[in-house]
Amino acid sequence: MAIENEVYADGVYQIHMLEHTIRLDLMRLQPSPENKTPIPRPFERVIMNPQGFLRTYEAMGQIIQKLEELGVIRRNNPDEPQQ
């Protein structure tokens, strides 16, 4: 299977449900006029049925687990003091 399009996003701006579909609004961070904190700007929407959303959620959980195993990310433990 060949991928036809690639989209870069800095994250999800908003997730909401409408008429039994889940809608993920993707966003990119844009420079602010004052050159301070970047401003998130929505630019594209992905629409999925509930089953597709659950498959995506499970796949993301697997990636998070791999990132934890590699030491790229670490879960916050509420009982552990912040460094």
Net shape? extended
Number of helices: 1
CATH architecture group name: Roll
What quaternary form is this? single chain
What class do helices, strands and sheet pairing give? alpha+beta
The CATH topology: Transcriptional Co-activator pc4, Chain A
Cα gyration radius (Å) = 17 Å
Numbering strands along the chain, what is their spatial order in the largest sheet? 1-2-3
Helix-strand pattern, N to C? EEEH
- Fraction of residues in helices? 25-40%
Mean pLDDT: 92
Beta content comes to 25-35%
User: In total, how many domains does the architecture comprise?
Assistant: 1
Biggest sheet architecture: 3 strands, antiparallel
Number of strands: 3
Q: Tell me, what is the CATH class?
A: Mainly Beta
Distance from N terminus to C terminus (CA atoms, Å) equals 45 Å
Low-confidence stretches: none
Description:
The structure is a single chain. The protein is α+β, with helices and mostly antiparallel strands and 83 residues long. The chain has a single domain (11-70), classed as Transcriptional Co-activator pc4, Chain A (Roll), CATH 2.30.31. The protein has one helix and three strands, in the order βββα. Strands 1-2-3 form a three-stranded antiparallel β-sheet. It starts with 10 loop residues before the first strand and ends in a 13-residue tail after the last helix. The model has no long low-confidence stretch (mean pLDDT 92).
Structural features:
single chain, 83 residues, Transcriptional Co-activator pc4, Chain A, three-stranded antiparallel sheet, 3 strands
